Amino acid sequence: MPHDGHHHDDHAPIEDGGEITEYEVLEQAIRELLIEKGVVSADAIQRQMDEMDSRTPVMGSKIIARAWTDPAYRDRLIGEPKAALAEMGVTKLDENPEVEVVANTPDRHHVIVCTLCSCYPRVILGMPPAWYKKRAYRSRVVKEPRQVLKEFGTEFPDSVKIEVHDSTADMRYLVLPMRPEGTEDWTAEQLAGLVTRDVMIGVKVPVRP
Fold first, then answer.
1. What is the pLDDT of residues 123-133, one digit of tens each?
2. What is the rounded distance in angstroms from the CA atom of residue 192 to the CA atom of residue 158?
3. Which of 67, 98, 106, 118 has the largest CB neighbor count within 10 A?
4. Is residue 193 part of a domain?
């Protein structure tokens, strides 16, 4: 649901004390119970965790770069996201939710959050950054998006509307940023280098070096 109110580094301007959430406590208890009952082994869990940790935002960067260079693909990505993602080899997201691609414009900027936990398109963006899961980000970006974006170094004039989209277990969002000026003769590969995880979440915007 939209609200009015964007480098791959893990620097987190959003801090909240680092307390363990009730979801983390519940996950640990369930995991230990499943191992104890022999439903799954600790090694199997570790292998799955290693596989998830190896995911990166590279696929998302390629998808955005193609959308920037192929207008027809851009239209498909916005109109039929799952079909367009499948063209790039993304045939199934974790838990297979619906997907909505929200495109930034000169007068509208989108930013993503999951207020309940940390729902996030890992297959496209890799693992979520630590700050994305923090209670401070999850609560503050809905109430004061301009201030939160400013803490990431991203500022907009009042004429730009900020829309915050709340991911759920059934819906994931992907921000389609605006292509930086001065990149008209760049290849898709060059453009992909400008598209970072934070850009696709919406807390930053792509910048031409």
1. 899 989 999 99
2. 29
3. 67
4. yes
